[in-house]
Specification:
alpha/beta; binds S-adenosylmethionine; 11 strands; Rossmann fold
């Protein structure tokens, strides 16, 4: 099974949907809205004049938000549709971000250099089969002393069925999850159909992949809310904070991790 090709097709399709969705609010972004959430903004700190490599950047909103904050940014994604939109918007906004279109594992064939910060967020490692390979890429592109920052959905979330009605998968699942999907988290009613192949990763798998590269853990946190209303049946608790109605504050939805090169 060529899971990269299957997922790339899915993301090309979803990108076309997402850029026009109420969820991504592209008009507000174009008008100046910063799309980064408080969790990562705090961890990123002052990014002015810092070089940032943004992995799995989708169609560039966060990469370009970081550029607006004064960082020199490079975004990477394997979706041609996403990178095409990101490049057009970069020019439209007169920013100087660079965008690379490739599978994350192939990045060393497309990009040189090292960065002050490597960043990735919300819906990333679940598309990758091998975190050890991913961590090698991070280590390669991180300056000595540089920071890798990930904010993503907690692995506990991915144990549940899509409607969160039951625990469907083992926390320690090590087989791919092949799904036929309709709609998207950004527009559940959209009439798009596509297949995806996803991978669940435990926190120990995540931590060990980075430790194996000699990276040292600086920060780890878990949150009982998501900044995005991206799952079925969520309720808003505060600005930028959503919880699953059936679970309230009982389960973690998001984690943040910072490691140093
Ligand atoms: C959920 S999005 C990232 C979230 C981002 N914060 C956002 O919402 O704008 C996941 C992205 O990962 C990309 N992606 C998935 N697998 C990839 C791979 N193997 N190499 C590069 N990009 C990949 C997809 O194209 C998609 O743009």
């Amino acid at each position: 099974m060529n899971y990269i090709e299957i997922n790339k097709q899915a993301w090309n399709l979803k990108t076309k949907l997402h850029v026009n969705s109420a969820f991504y609010k592209q008009e507000e972004f174009l008008a100046g809205k910063n799309t980064l959430q408080p969790i990562e903004l705090e961890l990123l700190g002052d990014v002015s004049n810092k070089s940032i490599l943004h992995l799995q950047c989708h169609f560039g909103q966060d990469t370009l938000s970081l550029a607006r904050m004064g960082a020199q940014t490079t975004g990477v994604d394997f979706s041609e549709q996403a990178i095409q939109i990101a490049r057009v918007v970069n020019n439209q906004l007169n920013l100087n971000s660079r965008f690379v279109c490739c599978n994350i594992y192939d990045l060393p064939e497309h990009l040189d250099g090292q960065f002050d910060i490597v960043f990735t967020s919300y819906g990333t490692i679940g598309w990758l089969d091998d975190l050890n390979k991913w961590a090698v890429t991070i280590k390669k592109f991180l300056k000595p002393g540089g920071k890798f920052i990930i904010v993503d959905f907690h692995p506990v979330v991915w144990m549940y069925s899509n409607d969160f009605s039951y625990v469907q998968y083992s926390y320690f699942l090590d087989e791919p999850i092949v799904e036929d999907n309709e709609g998207s988290y950004a527009d559940r009613q959209a009439s798009v159909n596509y297949q995806t192949v996803g991978f669940n990763h435990s926190l120990s798998e995540l931590f060990q992949s980075l430790i194996n590269q000699g990276l040292s853990i600086q920060h780890f946190n878990e949150y009982n809310y998501s900044p995005y209303n991206c799952f079925p049946d969520m309720e808003q608790i505060e600005e930028n904070q959503f919880r699953l109605k059936p679970f309230g504050n009982k389960i973690p939805l998001v984690y943040s991790l910072v490691v140093q090169g």
